[in-house]
Specification:
Residues 34-386 form the FAD dependent oxidoreductase domain. It comes from Notoacmeibacter marinus. There is one protein chain. By secondary structure, this protein is of the alpha/beta class. The protein has a domain at 23-74 and 190-256 and 352-421: 3-Layer(bba) Sandwich (FAD/NAD(P)-binding domain), CATH 3.50.50. The chain is built from 11 helices and 16 strands. It has helices at residues 13-17, 42-53, 86-119, 139-152, 163-170, 189-203, 254-257, 318-329, 373-389, 395-399, 409-429, and strands at residues 31-38, 58-61, 126-133, 158-161, 177-186, 206-208, 215-217, 223-227, 230-239, 259-268, 283-286, 293-296, 302-309, 338-348, 355-360, 363-367. β8 (223-227) and β9 (230-239) form a beta hairpin. α3 crosses α9. The longest helix is centred in the N-terminal third of the chain and has 34 residues, at 86-119. The N and C termini lie far apart (50 Å).
Length: 430
């Protein structure tokens, strides 16, 4: 098979640690199906699997390999709730809608953890997540969040940690406090991609890699998708390109609402067996606007993310930049070898909530999970499939969200984002 140029830079630890990553053919000739899906990440693959399980004739194409975008290269943290805390959403949406969105997220978590057992694949799940406070003035907010989640959202799994408890849990004195979430955890994200694809193929979905969609035509009551070697004819289409919508000129609506941010991760050489970093095995994210996130791999490497970029150009010396960030939290690792460095594009929206919209007759676009896609992208793909077959209507809660376009139009939205992110990064350092 002739692969297209990589969509994301760097060999990830995920790729290096995976013993089997099946390949899929390119589409060749005209194809007819009930449903066509563009994009082979979590959203598209989960939708294809769900539809195929219900006997729907579904075809999925991806311009590259499945999981070469953020789905196979992210930090692996599942999280709880939507990207914004439920208590934050209350101000704009009210308590009832915030609770409904939290319920969807909890359903997403439950279904995500059930999928591997149901379909016989492994995602390397490990329990626990810690959210650490890097500024003293935010301590009260984190403590209050733990209380609110138990009292207003019936979620008793979050515990507040004071400074000594945080230092012991993380293995660093850098943070002032934290909350520990025992109701979630983290996974090997590429294993989830491989598992979803394998299950979808087994269920009867037609899957094709290295097959870019060149155009979408909804005229005549059916959707026609042009590829390099033929046309796909379908009754409906799901566009699940997410952060890579900018490269898909046939669909100009989503890129106005979903902005790609490039995020980079490094993995150190294996640490000594007696190190005191994350003795409980949790994943960590911190309170910076430009979030730093890290966890241990099964072979005892520290996997650390936090280097971001807002242009298509890959930054210089990513390993050096990540090592410097690691050293701020773990000074003993200031000279650590970085064995793997990789990046991927994350799709964000202005309110950090998912974008679900009909963008042309018979065509729906889904994306913009804003760093919370491990469970929410997977679940939203399943919700879309169930809405197509009439099984449940939870997708309407996401359809009804107000996701405004980024300001500045095509020419200025990325420069304006760069200025905004630079400002927040400066505030993080002060």
């Amino acid at each position: 098979m002739n692969y297209r140029s990589p969509i994301s830079p760097g060999l990830s630890w995920y790729e290096a640690s995976l013993t089997d990553r099946p390949t899929y053919p390119s589409a060749d000739g005209d194809i007819r199906a009930d449903i066509a899906i563009i994009g082979g990440g979590y959203t598209g693959l989960a939708a294809a699997l769900r539809l195929a399980e219900q006997g729907v004739d579904v075809v999925l194409i991806d311009a590259h390999r499945f999981g070469d975008g953020a789905s196979g290269r992210n930090g692996g943290q599942i999280g709880t709730g939507q990207r914004a805390w439920p208590t934050e959403l209350e101000d704009d949406l009210g308590l009832d809608r915030s609770r409904a969105l939290f319920r969807i997220a909890e359903d997403a978590k439950t279904e995500l953890l059930a999928l591997p057992a149901k379909h016989g694949f492994d995602v390397g799940y490990r329990p626990g997540q810690i959210s650490a406070v890097h500024k003293k003035r935010w301590i009260a907010g984190y403590r209050n969040h733990a209380t609110a989640m138990a009292e207003r959202y019936d979620y008793p799994h979050i515990a507040y940690l004071d400074r000594p408890e945080t230092a012991a849990a993380i293995g660093s004195k850098r943070y002032h406090a934290a909350i520990r979430d025992a109701g979630t955890g983290h996974i090997h994200p590429l294993k989830l991609v491989v598992g979803l694809a394998g299950a979808a193929r087994k269920a009867g979905a037609k899957l094709y890699e290295n097959t870019p969609a060149l155009g979408i035509d909804p005229a005549g009551g059916r959707v026609k998708i042009t590829t390099e070697r033929g046309i796909i004819h379908a009754d409906r289409c799901l566009v699940a390109t997410n952060a890579h919508g900018d490269a898909f000129e046939a669909e100009p609506v989503s890129p106005r609402h979903i902005m790609p941010i490039r995020s980079f991760i490094g993995a150190t050489a294996p640490l000594p067996a007696n190190d005191d970093i994350l003795p409980g095995g949790e994943a960590v994210d911190d309170s910076r606007f430009m979030v730093r996130y890290f966890r241990k791999t099964p072979d005892n490497r520290l996997m650390f993310g936090g280097r971001e970029a807002y242009s298509a150009k890959t930054p210089n010396d990513i390993a050096g930049h990540i090592r410097a960030q690691i050293a701020e939290i773990f000074p003993a690792l200031s000279e650590a070898d970085i064995d793997y460095v990789w990046g991927g594009s994350v799709g964000i929206t202005l309110p950090r909530l998912p974008f679900v919209r009909t963008i042309m007759p018979g065509v729906t676009s889904i994306g913009g999970f804003s760093g919370h896609g491990v469970m929410m992208a997977t679940h939203t793909g399943r919700l879309w499939a169930d809405s197509v077959t009439g099984r449940r209507d939870d997708l309407n809660l996401l359809r009804d969200l107000d996701i405004p376009p980024f300001p500045g139009g095509t020419a200025l939205r990325k420069p304006l984002l760069f200025l905004a992110m630079t400002w927040y990064a400066m505030l993080d350092r002060l």
